[in-house]
User: Fold this.
Amino acid sequence: MSAGALFAQSREEIRMTLEQGERLLLTFIIPILGLILFSQTSIVSTGTSSRVEFFAPSALALAVMSTAMVNLAVATGFERSWGVLKRLGTTPLSPVALLAAKAVAVIVVEVVQTVVLLGIAFGLGWRPHAGAGAAVAAALLATMAFAGLGFLMAGTLRAEATLAVANGLYVVFLGISGIMFPLSRLGGFADLARLLPPTALADALHPALGTGQGVPAEAWIVLAAWAVVAPALAAWRFRFATE
Amino acid sequence: MESIAVSQLSVRRRDVLAVDSVSFVARAGEVTVLLGPNGAGKTTTVETLEGYLRPEQGSVRVLGLDPLHQRSELTPMLGVMLQEGGIYPPMAPARAISLFASYYADPLSVDELLGIVGLNEVAGVPAKRLSGGQRRRLALALALVGRPRVVFLDEPTAGVDPEGRLAIRAVIERLRDQGVCILLTTHELEEAERLADHLVLLRAGAVVADGTPAELLAGADEIRFVAAVGLPTEELAARLSAVVREERPGEYRVARKPDPAALAGVTGWLAERGVALDELRGGRRRLEEVFLELLVDEAQPRAEVPGRRERRRR
Assistant:
């Protein structure tokens, strides 16, 4: 397997995300519209000095979740049901190379999402605090955690079930993660929700980029734990072919 | 030299012994056809050779390698067409072929391959909008892009229109002439009869016959003819000193070696009676008869055909 194969595979993985309307809707349109809509209206009160200060990190968290979990799960699930993963098993492209190509594609799409969302947030008057290092580290850990969950679904369920579960999880995570509204609104539920990767990601991005405070240790622990456990579960349960 | 060697192979699939002690070889420059009804174990055999399934007993070797444990050495030399799927529906043929080309050290050019399988005109159309036959031709192209030495084609023309079939068969014959070893499965007799240099008949997970088509088709000491219904067979039997039976209305079988004297005897007798002859065949049987005899006749579970000795070239 050559570098050429990794490059070509990564490029096609990226193109298949960026060329298909329903995938763009998930990865770009919804985070962008959410950022604009919620920061320019008072549908949700955030308790921060400016609404964009809350929703810019939220949109970035949403972008990471949509790309690393939902898009990856749905794409991989369908590739499995189309027999593509099985077929790739008899080409010189190794499973490790395929995984690497998918990782490259996820990171590249996330970088594009970040650039677009940051540009819009700047246009809306947002000025982030200097927490870029912590934000990038949190996003990478969350990407591993979400990708693990995505592969776990894609490698064990039928494609249609993966589609349903991934989107269902996305909606649930959106509601209880502190992405759409501050976690304090969940009351006693908040402590439980803090154990989930999207909540930990929002808990890390909001202080790192928004308020300038330090990221709580609890968020790092939760993110790191999911970043190890979810990919390990996926590696253990993943089946390349449906039978 | 043997490109593929299957020896005493048994494979269990979902607790069922799908392949039971199967042995055969396939050689370079030949089309070996695994022929049998659905459920005979064809796909299980091929997928074990491709490294997808684990043998329960026995062994498989492809180009001398173990497909399960020497995957990285073997895959650069393999071309695989799965029974279904294996292509990205959103991807157009040109893109899919150039993607697969990137996996191999010395791939065919995309344009050349599009021409070989006849997909030039739809090179930019997403696979999901192609016809079933065009998708199978794309799957074939993806199997060939790496210049494989061994090609596995699992029912390559199932559900393909006649034009597509001709195109696929032409590609297979071209590969054979280039010295590639081709292992093809089908449950269609016509396909097997047209393509096979070497036939392996499977039934219920076991080999029931193995040889060249010539070997499997020859050897019947019989004359068959089709004429008017209800001829007095005992009269012809007496004249030829052989058993004559009307097996189906108007279809007669004479149990005698088809030498010229016997054939003249049949036609002479018909001429005397003024009966028109619709069909006359001696010696060489149609594959369908062999197939039915070997596969359907439960009373005769195994018909041994001597191992193949000579290569049949066409």
About this structure: The longest strand of chain B covers residues 2-13. Chain B touches chain A through 28 residues (CB under 8 Å). The longest helix of chain B spans residues 162-177.
